[in-house]
Amino acid sequence: MPKITGVADHPNKDLMEDLWRNQGMRAKKIITYLEEHNLPTVSYKALGKYGQRNWTEKKEGDLDLTDLDIKLQEAEDLGIITRISLSKTGYSISVTPKLPDEQVEILQSIPKAPRKPSKKSKSSSGNVTHVIIPDTQVEPGRPIDHLWWASAYINDHVDNDVVRLIHLGDHWNMGSLSSYDRGKGYMEGRRYLADINSGNEGFKALNCELVDKKFDKHFLFGNHENRINKAVENDIQLDGLLTTEHCDTMDWQRHNFLDIVDLDGIAYSHYFYNPTTSKPYGGEIEGRLKTIGRSFVMGHQQGLKFAARYIQEKQQIGIAAGSFYEHQEHYMGPQGTGYWRGIIVLHDIDNGSCENPQFISIEKLKRMYA
User: φ and ψ at 34, to 5 degrees?
Assistant: First the structure.
């Protein structure tokens, strides 16, 4: 049957009104009914608009949603609908523009790193050494020589029955996604690709002298790598295009952001947080050690904080170290860059205790290997 554009002059107008008012049908179901009974059909938009205005009983104070269905269709043509807000005076529709084909092709071209199967590290005591690598924050244009210095130092000076390497996270700085981290901004595929590639090159430098070593290696994803996951959460178009699998950690075991990794009685995480506020613990390191109640190591915060205490003759240590890089953080200003940077070696670990922590500054590594 032919389609009649208008509703007012439709030969089955009374039938459509009855279906709308008394049967609770709306435009889509009414059109299906007309087709099934071989009756002239009508424009979907015209019927929806006419029915809302003329056949829907409105109470005083009701919100007029006459055009909402049509506006939603128009919004879908522009992009992805992310939010619909209703108020007493009307409604608003938030739309994320569709990702250009060029950006999709760039993101699809990025290879995913092979994954090393996770395994549970067996606790040991006595001849156990941990090497801690704080946040490295690699991105295009930043120097990475210090990563090779650390690799060479570990190769030359660390040897024990059990050696574990723990990178505390924030290796991939992901500046291209900093605006996504705040819930706004647009995807720039080339900047994202550059961030991934520079981080992968930096990780190769860190691992270059350690490939043949039988060390137990762990990488803890930080909040900067987690910007990738946040971007996907904020824009469904990026699902499958952006992934932390682009971050190549080579033969290191990977641990999700804020997972707690227990190694020989020491709890490792990118940071520890208050479970009621989800914010990282702050203040003096002694207070954090008391709150967490066990030996712990975290990154995330620039500089170095260390504390030790004894509970019933058993030692507990707390370490916060979040900086192993040469560049200056501009947001901290000219007077905020004098904090400690380096790596940490914990010797003779025994069920969370360590009598001989060693703090190796980036300046010392530079003197030895530059």
Answer: -60, -40
Instruction: Residue 182: give its domain's CATH number.
Output: 3.60.21.10
pTM of the entire predicted model: 0.74
- Angle of the 145-157 helix axis to the 189-207 helix axis, nearest 10: 20
Residue 203 is inside which H or E element, if any?
A: helix 189-207
Cβ-contact 220, 173 below 8 angstroms: no
- DSSP run (H or E) holding 138: none
Domain match, 28 and 114 both: no
Cite the DSSP H helix spans in 27-167.
27-36, 44-54, 68-78, 101-108, 145-157
CA dist., res. 75 & res. 175, Å (int): 30
Q: Are 35 and 51 in contact (CB under 8 A)?
A: no
Q: Which of 197, 138, 193 has the alpha carbon at shortest distance from 169?
A: 138
Domain check: are 175 and 299 in the same one?
yes
pLDDT tens for residues 282-295?
899 999 999 999 99
What does the alpha-carbon distance between residue 288 and residue 295 come to, in Å, rounded to a whole number?
Answer: 10
The verdict on residue 64 lying in a domain is: no
